[in-house]
Protein backbone atom coordinates (compact mmCIF):
# COMPACT_ATOMS: atom_id res chain seq x y z
CA UNK A 1 0.00 0.00 0.00
CA UNK A 2 1.33 3.43 -0.90
CA UNK A 3 2.23 5.69 1.99
CA UNK A 4 0.38 8.97 2.16
CA UNK A 5 2.34 11.99 1.04
CA UNK A 6 3.66 13.98 4.01
CA UNK A 7 2.22 17.46 4.41
CA UNK A 8 4.52 20.46 4.07
CA UNK A 9 4.53 21.12 7.82
CA UNK A 10 5.70 17.59 8.63
CA UNK A 11 8.43 17.94 6.03
CA UNK A 12 9.56 21.27 7.48
CA UNK A 13 9.54 19.99 11.07
CA UNK A 14 11.62 17.01 9.98
CA UNK A 15 14.12 19.31 8.24
CA UNK A 16 14.40 21.40 11.42
CA UNK A 17 14.93 18.29 13.56
CA UNK A 18 17.52 16.86 11.14
CA UNK A 19 19.43 20.14 11.19
CA UNK A 20 19.35 20.06 14.99
CA UNK A 21 20.59 16.46 14.99
CA UNK A 22 23.48 17.35 12.67
CA UNK A 23 24.27 20.37 14.84
CA UNK A 24 24.37 18.26 18.00
CA UNK A 25 26.61 15.68 16.32
CA UNK A 26 29.08 18.40 15.31
CA UNK A 27 28.76 19.99 18.75
CA UNK A 28 29.75 16.81 20.57
CA UNK A 29 32.36 15.46 18.12
CA UNK A 30 34.39 18.57 17.16
CA UNK A 31 37.39 19.06 19.43
CA UNK A 32 38.49 22.60 20.22
CA UNK A 33 42.22 22.82 20.95
CA UNK A 34 43.24 26.42 20.22
CA UNK A 35 41.91 29.81 19.12
CA UNK A 36 41.75 28.78 15.46
CA UNK A 37 39.66 25.67 16.09
CA UNK A 38 37.53 27.61 18.58
CA UNK A 39 36.66 30.15 15.88
CA UNK A 40 35.88 27.38 13.39
CA UNK A 41 33.67 25.68 16.00
CA UNK A 42 31.77 28.90 16.70
CA UNK A 43 31.44 29.89 13.04
CA UNK A 44 30.17 26.46 11.99
CA UNK A 45 27.55 26.35 14.75
CA UNK A 46 26.47 29.84 13.72
CA UNK A 47 25.92 28.48 10.19
CA UNK A 48 23.75 25.67 11.57
CA UNK A 49 21.80 28.19 13.63
CA UNK A 50 21.26 30.43 10.58
CA UNK A 51 20.03 27.43 8.59
CA UNK A 52 17.60 26.69 11.42
CA UNK A 53 16.36 30.29 11.42
CA UNK A 54 15.64 30.02 7.70
CA UNK A 55 13.55 26.89 8.32
CA UNK A 56 11.62 28.72 11.05
CA UNK A 57 10.93 31.67 8.74
CA UNK A 58 9.68 29.27 6.07
CA UNK A 59 7.43 27.55 8.60
CA UNK A 60 5.90 30.83 9.74
CA UNK A 61 5.31 31.87 6.13
CA UNK A 62 3.60 28.56 5.34
CA UNK A 63 1.47 28.73 8.49
CA UNK A 64 0.31 32.22 7.56
CA UNK A 65 -0.66 31.04 4.07
CA UNK A 66 -2.39 27.81 5.10
CA UNK A 67 -6.16 27.62 5.43
CA UNK A 68 -6.08 24.18 7.09
CA UNK A 69 -3.21 22.57 9.04
CA UNK A 70 -2.87 18.90 10.08
CA UNK A 71 -2.73 19.89 13.75
CA UNK A 72 -3.47 23.25 15.37
CA UNK A 73 -1.22 25.92 13.90
CA UNK A 74 -0.41 27.22 17.38
CA UNK A 75 0.92 23.78 18.32
CA UNK A 76 3.03 23.61 15.15
CA UNK A 77 4.46 27.06 15.85
CA UNK A 78 5.18 26.28 19.50
CA UNK A 79 6.93 23.05 18.58
CA UNK A 80 8.93 24.84 15.89
CA UNK A 81 10.03 27.54 18.32
CA UNK A 82 11.02 25.02 20.99
CA UNK A 83 13.17 23.15 18.47
CA UNK A 84 14.77 26.45 17.48
CA UNK A 85 15.46 27.27 21.14
CA UNK A 86 17.64 24.15 21.43
CA UNK A 87 19.62 25.20 18.36
CA UNK A 88 19.95 28.79 19.62
CA UNK A 89 21.24 27.48 22.95
CA UNK A 90 23.97 25.42 21.30
CA UNK A 91 25.05 28.40 19.20
CA UNK A 92 25.02 30.64 22.30
CA UNK A 93 27.25 28.14 24.10
CA UNK A 94 29.86 28.25 21.31
CA UNK A 95 29.71 32.05 21.16
CA UNK A 96 30.29 32.20 24.93
CA UNK A 97 33.37 29.99 24.61
CA UNK A 98 34.73 32.30 21.91
CA UNK A 99 34.02 35.45 23.93
CA UNK A 100 35.88 34.00 26.93
CA UNK A 101 38.60 32.40 24.76
CA UNK A 102 38.06 29.03 26.40
CA UNK A 103 39.79 26.37 24.31
CA UNK A 104 39.51 23.33 26.59
CA UNK A 105 36.65 21.25 27.95
CA UNK A 106 36.16 19.56 31.33
CA UNK A 107 34.33 16.45 32.50
CA UNK A 108 31.13 18.39 33.22
CA UNK A 109 30.98 20.05 29.79
CA UNK A 110 31.68 16.67 28.18
CA UNK A 111 28.82 15.02 30.09
CA UNK A 112 26.44 17.86 29.25
CA UNK A 113 27.41 17.56 25.59
CA UNK A 114 26.74 13.82 25.63
CA UNK A 115 23.30 14.31 27.18
CA UNK A 116 22.39 17.04 24.68
CA UNK A 117 23.47 14.78 21.82
CA UNK A 118 21.21 12.02 23.15
CA UNK A 119 18.31 14.47 23.41
CA UNK A 120 18.77 15.55 19.80
CA UNK A 121 18.64 11.90 18.67
CA UNK A 122 15.41 11.35 20.59
CA UNK A 123 13.94 14.59 19.24
CA UNK A 124 14.59 13.54 15.64
CA UNK A 125 12.89 10.19 16.30
CA UNK A 126 9.82 11.91 17.77
CA UNK A 127 9.49 14.36 14.89
CA UNK A 128 9.75 11.55 12.34
CA UNK A 129 7.06 9.63 14.25
CA UNK A 130 4.90 12.76 14.24
CA UNK A 131 5.40 13.11 10.49
CA UNK A 132 4.25 9.50 10.06
CA UNK A 133 1.21 10.18 12.28
CA UNK A 134 2.42 7.57 14.80
CA UNK A 135 1.47 9.69 17.79
CA UNK A 136 1.18 6.84 20.29
CA UNK A 137 4.79 5.82 19.62
CA UNK A 138 6.12 9.27 20.58
CA UNK A 139 5.44 9.07 24.32
CA UNK A 140 8.36 6.76 25.34
CA UNK A 141 10.83 9.02 23.54
CA UNK A 142 9.37 12.14 25.15
CA UNK A 143 9.82 10.46 28.53
CA UNK A 144 13.45 9.63 27.63
CA UNK A 145 14.10 13.31 26.83
CA UNK A 146 12.70 14.29 30.23
CA UNK A 147 14.88 11.70 31.96
CA UNK A 148 17.96 13.11 30.23
CA UNK A 149 16.96 16.63 31.28
CA UNK A 150 16.68 15.40 34.88
CA UNK A 151 20.22 14.03 34.60
CA UNK A 152 21.34 17.45 33.38
CA UNK A 153 19.72 19.10 36.42
CA UNK A 154 21.76 16.84 38.69
CA UNK A 155 24.90 17.46 36.64
CA UNK A 156 24.33 21.21 36.82
CA UNK A 157 24.24 21.12 40.63
CA UNK A 158 27.31 18.88 40.74
CA UNK A 159 29.27 21.09 38.33
CA UNK A 160 28.51 24.26 40.33
CA UNK A 161 29.40 22.61 43.64
CA UNK A 162 32.73 21.51 42.16
CA UNK A 163 33.34 24.95 40.65
CA UNK A 164 32.70 26.88 43.86
CA UNK A 165 34.60 24.32 45.93
CA UNK A 166 37.78 24.12 43.86
CA UNK A 167 38.18 27.18 41.63
CA UNK A 168 39.97 30.13 43.24
CA UNK A 169 40.04 32.49 40.25
CA UNK A 170 36.86 34.64 40.48
CA UNK A 171 36.89 35.35 36.74
CA UNK A 172 36.89 31.66 35.92
CA UNK A 173 34.08 31.10 38.42
CA UNK A 174 31.96 33.68 36.58
CA UNK A 175 32.82 32.24 33.17
CA UNK A 176 32.24 28.58 33.96
CA UNK A 177 29.09 29.30 35.94
CA UNK A 178 27.63 30.90 32.80
CA UNK A 179 28.81 28.00 30.63
CA UNK A 180 27.22 25.37 32.88
CA UNK A 181 23.99 27.36 33.09
CA UNK A 182 23.87 27.70 29.30
CA UNK A 183 24.24 23.94 28.90
CA UNK A 184 21.52 23.29 31.47
CA UNK A 185 19.23 25.73 29.63
CA UNK A 186 19.76 23.75 26.40
CA UNK A 187 18.54 20.65 28.24
CA UNK A 188 15.53 22.65 29.51
CA UNK A 189 14.74 23.57 25.89
CA UNK A 190 14.87 19.88 24.96
CA UNK A 191 12.34 19.19 27.69
CA UNK A 192 10.11 21.93 26.25
CA UNK A 193 10.14 20.06 22.94
CA UNK A 194 8.99 16.93 24.79
CA UNK A 195 6.27 18.88 26.59
CA UNK A 196 4.99 20.34 23.32
CA UNK A 197 4.92 16.89 21.74
CA UNK A 198 2.91 15.52 24.66
CA UNK A 199 0.42 18.36 24.24
CA UNK A 200 0.03 17.45 20.56
CA UNK A 201 -0.46 13.77 21.48
CA UNK A 202 -3.11 14.68 24.05
CA UNK A 203 -5.06 16.79 21.54
CA UNK A 204 -4.78 14.52 18.51
CA UNK A 205 -4.22 10.87 19.49
TrEMBL record:
Alphabetized SUPFAM superfamilies for the sequence: PhoU-like (SSF109755)
Pfam families: PhoU_div
Source organism, top-level taxon: Bacteria
InterPro entries (UniProt xref): PhoU-like_sf (IPR038078), Put_Phosphate_transp_reg (IPR018445), UPF0111_domain (IPR052912)
Family the entry assigns: Belongs to the UPF0111 family.
Record's protein name: DUF47 domain-containing protein
Amino acid sequence: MLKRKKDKFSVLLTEIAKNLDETAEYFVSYKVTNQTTLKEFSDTLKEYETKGDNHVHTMIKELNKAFITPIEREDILQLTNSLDDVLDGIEHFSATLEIYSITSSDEHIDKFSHYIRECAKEILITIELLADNRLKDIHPHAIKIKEIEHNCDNLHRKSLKNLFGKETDPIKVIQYKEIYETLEEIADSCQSVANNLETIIMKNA
